[in-house]
Write a structure and sequence with these properties.
Layout: E1 6-9, H1 19-28, E2 34-39, H2 51-60, E3 65-70, H3 78-84, E4 88-92, H4 99-108, E5 112-117, E6 135-139, H5 154-167, E7 173-177, H6 185-190, E8 195-198, H7 200-203, H8 208-217, H9 220-223
Parallel strand pairs: 1-8, 2-3, 3-4, 4-5, 5-6, 6-7, 7-8
Helix pairs in contact: 2-3
This protein binds D-xylitol-5-phosphate and zinc ion.
């Protein structure tokens, strides 16, 4: 079964000399969210941008901003990112010794609370915080860079998490991030994902708007077989 799914283009692959144009493209497309990758050069080797850029993007976009914090000690920056306009704030499991507290902190700001897990982190480790989560981001590459190859072993993780959550009548959104494109989106959705993050497969496409639309349309026939 494929559920109604969301598309979250990752701005990491946009042209930052033409940020306004690229945000406007997403804005006018069928994308549901805008995914913003914050990297600190410590949790991951790369450095991207912080809350000032998130705030600038907030002014250009009415879509929900899905802020993926790839930073150490994310609890120090939850309120500033929320004030900058984040709607979903995702922290890394591997960066949070007090994950339960950090998730409460995110919810207290009014944002949706997400946790991301690296490819080596089992979904079973989330068992005791499942109630406290609005979203789980399964990393299907090692975080830090766009344009990497999708790690196929992420697919059974999606299915396991979906089963864990279903058994307890919980419905965190399952997001998949890294190496996602038209070539693997259907399999990812069939495994139980709700949100597809796509950077290079959107911004590297000849027609990014159409790439978003095609990803959004996956599974449509299966969902509406009797519409004529
Ligand atoms: C990777 C980031 C991703 C990245 C995805 O660390 O979290 O969101 O932008 O880029 P693609 O889709 O190119 O793999
Ligand atoms: Zn990301």
């Amino acid at each position: 079964m494929i559920r109604n799914h969301l598309i979250a283009p990752s701005l990491l692959a946009a042209d930052f000399t033409r940020l306004e144009r690229d945000v406007a493209m997403v804005e006018q497309s069928r994308a549901d969210w805008l995914h913003l990758d914050v990297m600190d050069g410590r949790f991951v080797p790369n450095i991207t941008f912080g809350m000032f850029i998130v705030q600038a993007i907030r002014k250009m976009s009415a879509k929900p901003l899905d802020v993926h914090l790839m930073i150490v000690e994310p609890e120090r920056y939850i309120e500033p990112f929320r004030a900058a306009g984040a709607d979903v704030i995702t922290v890394h499991y591997e960066a949070c010794p007090h994950l339960h507290r950090t998730l409460q902190q995110i919810r207290d700001t009014g944002a949706k609370a997400g946790v991301a897990i690296n490819p080596h982190t089992s979904v079973e480790l989330l068992d005791d915080v499942l109630e406290d989560l609005d979203l789980v981001c399964i990393m299907s590459v090692n975080p830090g860079f766009g344009g990497q190859k999708f790690i196929y072993r992420s697919i059974p993780k999606i299915a396991r998490l979906r089963q864990m959550a279903d058994e307890r009548n919980l419905y965190p959104l399952i997001e998949v991030d890294g190496g996602v494109g038209l070539q693997n989106a259907e399999k990812i959705l069939q495994a139980g994902a709700d949100v597809l993050v796509a950077g290079s497969s959107v911004f590297g496409a000849d027609n990014p708007t159409e790439a978003i639309a095609r990803m959004k349309d996956i599974g449509q026939e299966a969902r509406q077989p009797f519409l004529v």
